[in-house]
Design brief:
This protein has 211 residues and is mainly β. Helices cover 5% and strands 28% of the residues.
Length: 211
């Protein structure tokens, strides 16, 4: 599956994230931001585009209805931030802490989560298209009633993730690990799994396997 990378020009100029507060509209673009802290703030309907953001802290900040386009986040902390109702397009989260982040009712496309912590994150009622979770932890992550199209979980820990009312048809989880999942049998139809995972699902469904 090919994911379009963020389209970010080379000639970015440095800024502090707090500069967004001086803008007439909450918008930042064509800049690089490093080592900024913007925690426990409220900034709904912000727009970030064509940016690189590194080593920044956004824990407990409300970013409802945020628009993220062509952005790279690296080593950023979004713990318990609210990104619900967001539009996220051509974005990379690399080595980020996304513990308990609220992504509910969001539109997510051409997005990769790489080597990141997403335990207890909530994606319920979101549309995810061309989205990759790679080498990440998604323990107790909530994907309730999501629409998946071209989504992959590559070498992730998805233990106790919730996929209720979410079809996994065509979704590849074969390289990921889990002890248990919350999912209805009918939503497993067409899911790509390893042979070991097939035995796990059989056990979860209450089958008594006899060799």
């Amino acid at each position: 599956m090919k994911i379009n990378a963020p389209k970010i020009p080379n000639n970015l100029f440095p800024k502090e994230f707090n500069a967004i507060l001086t803008e007439e509209d909450p918008e930042l673009e064509l800049c690089s931001i490093s080592d900024s802290s913007f925690e426990a703030e409220k900034l709904p309907r912000a727009r970030l585009s064509k940016m690189i953001i590194k080593n920044c802290r956004f824990a407990h900040t409300v970013f409802r209805d945020i628009d993220l386009t062509d952005v790279e986040f690296e080593n950023c902390d979004f713990s318990n931030a609210d990104l619900s109702h967001s539009s996220i397009h051509r974005v990379v989260f690399r080595s980020c802490k996304l513990l308990g982040v609220n992504f509910t009712e969001s539109r997510i496309g051409h997005v990769s989560f790489e080597n990141s912590l997403l335990n207890l994150a909530a994606f319920s009622e979101s549309k995810c298209e061309k989205t990759v979770f790679q080498d990440s932890s998604l323990v107790h992550t909530d994907f309730y009633d999501c629409l998946f199209k071209n989504v992959a979980f590559q070498s992730c820990n998805i233990t106790d993730a919730n996929f209720e009312k979410t079809s996994l048809k065509g979704i590849d989880i074969s390289t990921s690990t889990f002890d248990s999942l919350t999912i209805s049998p009918e939503n497993l139809f067409g899911c790509k799994v390893s042979s070991y995972q097939a035995l796990q699902f059989a056990a979860l469904l209450g089958l008594d396997i006899v060799d």
